[in-house]
């Protein structure tokens, strides 16, 4: 369950400061999306494009519609070895538009404080502070404990 005050934090209106913070927290020269723009373009020209970007983000959160061109993702296969011959020898990466990344990062920033209360303690992957090896160690401990109990009965 999510309390009403935490729920309000998820659905609150987007502020210009929130969008500004997300844009300037992005790595400026990461690979561009299908539109060819990197975060550096938005950061360097924030005085010119900031209001338009903010309105774009507000419209998404208000209407829940993302224009097709902002949702285009370019999938690129980067070779892991010198002369790849199998698909497993490539590393796939998704190149999303900066506008898409801004919206995604705002959603992530809002959800992050709630994760501990929403994700089961058994779920360890993709949760900060938890590691998949925790479950391996737990399974080994259970098996060891069961073997000891079984041996005690015999």
TrEMBL record:
Signal peptide: none annotated. This is Reverse transcriptase domain-containing protein. Coiled coil: none annotated. Residues 79-150 form the Reverse transcriptase domain. Pfam families: RVT_1 (PF00078). It comes from Hibiscus trionum.
